[in-house]
Design brief:
The chain is of the alpha+beta class. The strands form three sheets. Strands 1, 2, 4, 5, 9, 10, 11 and 12 form an eight-stranded antiparallel sheet that branches. A hairpin with a 2-residue loop joins strand 1 and strand 2. Helix 2 crosses helix 3.
């Protein structure tokens, strides 16, 4: 057994060191993103039940058990940024450069400090998280680990290729969720913490706070890729269930049991939260934000040929 796996305190210390080093940098690069995945708060590893397997051999059949675990996996990096072609994640910026149908970006404004009806536009990219084996080793230190749905550096959604839906809100501008207040909103009006509406799932919204705008657009992008059959240009970020493996499903706003967010830029966080949250919101100078989307998976080790079922403790 390696020293890394044998000493939980060691990987916690190294994670903190790497995160503190990454926080001091301005550019968001792959090394920073990989080190950010070493977060025990976002991982939230726990044993949730027992799985039962029928194992048959020459001497007969017996029922074996294995521990059922649940934890979050960093499936993707979701970038939300104003200037087309300027994804804050430097190494993947070339994936979403301007094209004839998606050139301009930024906000519509009269430059009035008191303006409260500001039309903002954000591009969005959903790209597979690059942590790979580093995260697998980190998660395995707690016990048996589940695999996520994301493939490193795989583009699941690039808004520059989704022009009709992302820039013109076609056809989602006519959906009930886009027309009826309180349907699919991030936050609540009564709680005075409304960040924005999920629908229509495009790049335009009205919001005076740029950080909130970026978060709402990131939520929209995550909402699209965690569902099948959406009228967008994208690849579903979903895994198929199998014996002893229960993958994450559709992302829902304000529901941490479907997914949560770790801020990468303009500030690097060591913890995860859902939108809306009360954490300090730092405004990006160029309107570019990025989060890791962590999603929950449950699994257990195969210990037989036939899966008989599982029992959860809670």
């Amino acid at each position: 057994m390696s020293l890394w796996l044998a000493c939980p305190r060691l990987h916690t210390t190294v994670a903190a060191l790497l995160l503190s080093m990454a926080t001091s940098t301005f550019a968001l690069d792959t090394a920073t993103i990989v080190s950010s995945a070493l977060s025990s708060d976002c991982l939230a590893y726990r044993v949730v039940g027992v799985c039962y397997w029928l194992n048959c051999g020459r001497s007969g059949c017996s029922v074996r058990t294995s521990v059922k675990v649940r934890h979050y996996v960093p499936d993707a990096v979701v970038s939300s940024y104003s200037n087309t072609g300027e994804n804050p994640w430097l190494e993947v910026r070339a994936m979403s450069m301007p094209n004839p149908t998606a050139k301009a970006g930024g906000d519509g404004t009269t430059n009035d400090d008191n303006e409260n009806n500001l039309a903002r536009f954000k591009n969005a990219d959903v790209i597979g998280h690059p942590a790979g084996m580093v995260f697998s080793q980190f998660a395995s230190a707690s016990g048996y680990a589940c695999e996520g749905a994301g493939t490193a550096f795989m583009p699941y959604l690039l808004s520059t290729l989704d022009t009709l839906a992302w820039r013109y809100n076609v056809p989602e501008m006519a959906y009930p969720e886009a027309l009826i207040p309180s349907l699919r909103e991030i936050g609540t009006r009564t709680g005075l913490n409304l960040w924005g509406n999920v629908y229509p799932r495009g790049g335009f919204l009205h919001q005076t706070d740029d950080h909130m705008s970026g978060a709402v657009v990131a939520q929209r992008a995550g909402d699209i890729v965690t569902r099948r059959g959406q009228i967008h240009v994208y690849q579903p970020l979903l895994a198929n269930a199998r014996d002893g493996y229960w993958p994450a499903g559709a992302l829902m706003e304000t529901d941490a049991s479907t997914g949560k967010w770790q801020e990468l830029t303009p500030t690097l966080s060591t913890s995860c939260a859902v939108f809306p949250h009360g954490n300090p919101r730092v405004q990006a100078q160029r309107g570019d934000y990025a989060w890791t989307l962590w999603r929950p998976y449950s699994c257990c080790r195969r210990r037989g040929q036939v899966f008989l079922g599982s029992v959860d403790f809670m």
